[in-house]
């Protein structure tokens, strides 16, 4: 919708990583009414609830209302409606881009977006947002473009796995915790970028 900034979190089954990311980010930006956060899976276990261990870990980080989650499949309609698509792996990003090439410039792995957001300074945001006065949705869409342009500011990672959140499905509880420890700081970085984009002014 025109008056919303929509973020789509994507993993494989939509029962572990992406619903955790969806709910944690929703909690962090709940006071920003224009932001809408969704999740889906590239090979979703459609209709299934969030995995119990993932629920428990997400709750330990402050997520709420997890019981109502039901997995759904990534669709072209969801991609078209999304201003920012954040996947857990590079393969999932490839999936969504091949499904809808129009999302290429606004699709990232979650940890890639976090890495780029960390080098997107307030000065860079202010310069890009200079002509946008009041409309928060336009500010956030422009901020995504700013983050994308920051690719030129960072060197390639030595290990591509650094851009991914490991899949905990079917793994011991310790792997679920490891996955969350990769995911949560990246989500915090997304929330920080959203807030910075809404308050930054050109100096």
UniProtKB/TrEMBL annotation:
Molecular-function GO terms, alphabetical: protein tyrosine phosphatase activity
Residues annotated as the enzyme's active site: 11 (nucleophile), 17
Keyword Hydrolase among UniProt keywords: yes
Domain Phosphotyrosine protein phosphatase I: start-end pairs: 5-193
Pfam family for this entry, one: LMWPc
Keyword Hydrolase attributed: yes
This protein's UniProt keywords: Hydrolase, Protein phosphatase
Sequence similarity: Belongs to the low molecular weight phosphotyrosine protein phosphatase family.
Protein name: Low molecular weight phosphatase family protein
Organism: Corynebacterium ammoniagenes (Brevibacterium ammoniagenes)
């Amino acid at each position: 919708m025109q008056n919303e900034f929509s973020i789509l979190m994507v993993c494989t089954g939509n029962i572990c990583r992406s619903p955790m990311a969806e709910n944690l980010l929703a909690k962090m930006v709940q006071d920003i009414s224009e932001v809408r956060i969704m999740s889906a899976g590239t090979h979703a276990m459609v209709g299934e609830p969030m995995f119990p261990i993932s629920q428990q870990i997400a709750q330990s980080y402050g997520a709420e209302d997890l019981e109502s989650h039901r997995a759904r499949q990534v669709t072209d309609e969801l991609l078209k409606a999304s201003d920012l698509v954040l996947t857990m792996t590079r393969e999932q990003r490839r999936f969504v881009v091949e499904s809808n090439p129009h999302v290429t410039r606004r699709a990232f792995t979650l940890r890639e977006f976090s890495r780029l957001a960390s080098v997107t300074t307030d000065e860079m945001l202010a310069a890009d947002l200079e002509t946008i006065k009041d409309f928060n949705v336009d500010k956030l869409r422009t901020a995504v473009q700013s983050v994308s342009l920051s690719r030129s500011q960072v060197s390639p990672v030595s290990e591509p796995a650094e851009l991914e959140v490991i899949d905990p499905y079917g793994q011991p509880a310790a792997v679920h915790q490891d996955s969350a420890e990769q995911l949560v700081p990246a989500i915090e970085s997304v929330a920080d970028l959203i807030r910075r984009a809404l308050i930054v002014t050109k100096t």
